């Protein structure tokens, strides 16, 4: 059954996956290009909240650079709910998220839902894809 169905994650695996997810989000907001290249494999594909076009890893890196170039910064990042399904070396995280950013002294809060895929490659979790929406 473990080969075809989701298996429960123990607390250590859950902490590891949540830390990997947090690293991806924070690296993007900090425009940490090196860390993003470690965490997002070349075949990454993302569907972001409110955007019609899907993004490749290069486009995700460019978006992080534009965020930083605008002088924007992350004020707050929260994941009030996360459920995890694990299938061997693949994990799917279903989450509610909320973040607050500041640009030119103006703060903006965004929230929604995400489905994020993590794959264990060479002993670490990488994030080759996600789908975000507003939750409405």
SSE blueprint:
Elements: H1 11-29, H2 33-39, E1 45-47, E2 55-56, H3 57-69, E3 73-87, E4 90-103, E5 106-121, E6 124-133
Parallel strand pairs: 1-6
Antiparallel strand pairs: 1-2, 3-4, 4-5, 5-6
Helix pairs in contact: 1-2
Give structural notes.
It is built from three helices and six strands; from the N terminus they run ααββαββββ. The termini are far apart. By secondary structure, it is α+β, with helices and mostly antiparallel strands. Strands 2-1-6-5-4-3 form a six-stranded mixed beta sheet. It is 29% helix and 44% strand.
Features:
single chain, 136 residues, alpha+beta, 3 helices, globular
What are the segments in which pLDDT stays under 50 over at least 5 consecutive residues?
A: none
Shape: globular
Multimer state: single chain
Strand content: 35-45%
With strands numbered from the N-terminus, the spatial order across the biggest sheet is 2-1-6-5-4-3
- Whole-Å distance between the termini? 35 Å
Fraction in helix = 25-40%
Order of helices and strands: HHEEHEEEE
How large is the radius of gyration? 15 Å
Q: What number is the mean pLDDT?
A: 94
The assigned structural class equals: alpha+beta
Summarize this structure briefly.
The chain is α+β, with helices and mostly antiparallel strands. The chain has three helices and six strands.
């Amino acid at each position: 059954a473990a080969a075809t169905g989701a298996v429960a994650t123990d607390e250590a695996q859950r902490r590891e996956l949540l830390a990997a997810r947090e690293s991806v989000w924070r690296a993007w907001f900090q425009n940490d290009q090196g860390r993003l290249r470690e965490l997002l494999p070349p075949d990454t594909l993302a569907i972001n909240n409110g955007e019609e076009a899907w993004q490749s890893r290069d486009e995700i890196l460019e978006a992080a650079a534009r965020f930083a170039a605008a002088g924007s910064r992350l004020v707050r990042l929260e994941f009030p709910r996360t459920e995890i399904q694990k299938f061997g070396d693949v994990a799917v995280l279903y989450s509610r998220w909320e973040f607050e950013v500041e640009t030119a002294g103006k703060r903006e809060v965004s929230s929604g839902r995400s489905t994020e895929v993590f794959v264990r490659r060479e002993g670490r979790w990488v994030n080759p894809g996600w789908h975000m929406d507003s939750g409405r």
